[in-house]
Amino acid sequence: MTGSPSPTFDSKLFLANVSQRPGVYRMIGADGEVLYVGKARNLKNRLTTYFVGKAQAAKTMAMVSQVANVEVTVTASETEALLLEYNLIKRHRPRFNVTLRDDKSFPYLYVTTEDEYPRVSFYRGSRKLPGRFFGPYPNARATRETILLLQKLFLLRPCSDTFFANRSRPCLQHQIKRCSGPCVRLISPEEYRQDVNDAIKVLEGKGGELIDDLAQRMEQASLALEFEKAARLRDQINGIKAIHSTQSVTRNATEDIDAVALVSHGSDHCVSIVFVRGGRNLGSNNFFPKPGIAEAGELLSGFLAQYYLGREAPGEILINEQIEDADTLEQALSERMERTVRIRPSVRGVRARWLEMARTNAELGVKMRRATEATSVEQLQAMQEVFNLPNPPGRIECFDISHTMGERTVASCVVFGPEGPIKSDYRRFNIEGIAGGDDYGAMRQALSRRYARIKKGEAPTPDVLLIDGGPGQLAQATEVLNELEIENVLIAGVAKGADRRPGQERLFLPGHELPTVLPPDSPALHLIQRVRDEAHRFAITGHRARRGKARTQSVLETVPGLGPRKRRELLRQFGGLQGVTRAGIDDLAKVHGIGRKLAQSIFDTLHANG
């Protein structure tokens, strides 16, 4: 039988008046929550399937039983309905829709082609800057490996513009033969531009064409007795050939293609995407969408719409299953990208191998997911027993503090749920206004800031709060939560053993004088160690970034109106920052481009900072 909607909703009256045109519908619960958003070529026919006819799947029946109202929006076309559905899902995040767990943008490789000496760098974000973008890459590691490869082959600079503009001698990258030293003009702009163009050809998949060009240049250099240049060209040819030997599957292709495969085992689903750009296989990435009420075909269709309508789509998308609205999605993506985008379920040759590669990755992803989930369930149940909780914890937060001799203290908060880390909920806190090395004060400040927001309803309240530390840190956490009147949160301090070896952790609980020591093979201890180690890693990463920024930023960069060119001239005139610091206002004002007002500002800034 079909699902029975809420008694307050008259489905017969609704269906008698609904339009048969294309559009989008929204299932609304009694409390106003948007339960589900869907699109339809014929709204009347699609909505009738929910309330009249054969039996629905259990999840669909559960959703329909909660429906208090259905809102519809008629659109001019199916494509317009698809785009509206995407925007509404993104806005409301309905719990019965297909949702992605990872919404972070993919990294790109960015070449600042507009600069005199272009830079090659890692980039994530809007691609509206001048220059060339290559990717997307499946992860940051693949992007950085490509940058390192380009440095080795073409000696391109990876340094920031600020660092580049203030060099008076080559850095270590030049000494280890990873950069040609453009910062001090050891290479002409014309020669450097040639290297940039060669690197771009590699990124575009034109390695074969580039090898022929490099061979001709090597021969010309040899005839001109420029043997060092010829040797460098020879090394570049060998390096590019090595790349091609590892990319034999894709070396004859030039298109940008994504191979997308969905594999399902019971309630677990994995979508794997293999990225091919310019003939190079850049790797793959796995996604584990929550299926909502969708069947396998609808799940893949929903995934493709959410994923590609929010990102740049390649010219071809290969899929391992037919989807009903492929033509509508093709049209929407083609209009959005202003070029043809094809979705192909049936392919041969090398494309079939890419698709098989994606399917194999998805199979492995599902198996690993199921194994991980089984382990997670066991660990959460063990934690329930250890802490005597009424239910396995659904949300765990852990705090850690990191600093170097009290400098640039950073606190981290990581969050875990039944499915593992919830990275979108991670937070870092830059600690200010306390004595250096005061870990108790730092912990109190971080907890106060975090749980004041939780008190306001800005984040869910955890079931378990872990604190990296002993009784002192535990006392701070207990006081903060009591002051904020936050209840029903179990707090535990996690302290290392006497020789700080894993497996000897001591758990301190409020009201218990003696610590709890779990056996080394305890599943609960393994989960606690994992959460604690993740908090430690996240805190150290944030602290190092903050400390590094403070140590590498020149005090001259904080002077208003003092740009890179004037800073460089100051350093050149006085032989470095120490000489600038010793100079008087009159001496500073004599430097080209530095007026007396700016000289006063420079002097005040330098001496205000000691």
Can you put this structure into words, describing what you see?
Keywords: Cytoplasm, DNA damage, DNA excision, DNA repair, Excision nuclease, SOS response. The chain is an alpha+beta fold. It starts with 10 loop residues before the first helix and ends with a helix. The relative contact order is 0.06. It is 45% helix and 18% strand. α9 (207-223) runs antiparallel to α10 and α13 packs across α16 (523-552). It has 20 helices and 18 strands. Strands 12, 13, 14, 15, 16, 17 and 18 form a seven-stranded mixed sheet that branches. A five-stranded mixed sheet has the order 9-8-7-10-11, sandwiched between helices. It has helices spanning 11-17, 43-51, 58-64, 78-92, 140-154, 161-165, 172-175, 189-203, 207-223, 227-246, 296-308, 326-337, 349-387, 439-455, 471-483, 523-552, 564-574, 577-582, 585-589, 596-608, and strands at 23-29, 34-40, 67-74, 108-111, 120-123, 132-134, 257-265, 268-277, 280-287, 316-319, 342-344, 396-404, 407-417, 420-421, 427-430, 464-468, 490-495, 506-508.
What's the shape? globular
How far apart are the first and last residues' alpha carbons, in Å? 79 Å
* Mean pLDDT rating: 83
Extended strand count: 18
Major β-sheet annotation: 7 strands, mixed
Number of helices: 20
List unreliable stretches of 5+ residues.
Answer: 248-253
Compute the gyration radius: what is it?
30 Å
Q: State which percent range the strand residues make up.
A: 15-25%
Helix content range: 40-55%
What class would the helix/strand composition place it in? Answer: alpha+beta
Pfam families: GIY-YIG, HHH_5, UVR, UvrC_RNaseH, UvrC_RNaseH_dom
Main location: cytoplasm
Function: The UvrABC repair system catalyzes the recognition and processing of DNA lesions. UvrC both incises the 5' and 3' sides of the lesion. The N-terminal half is responsible for the 3' incision and the C-terminal half is responsible for the 5' incision.
Protein name: UvrABC system protein C
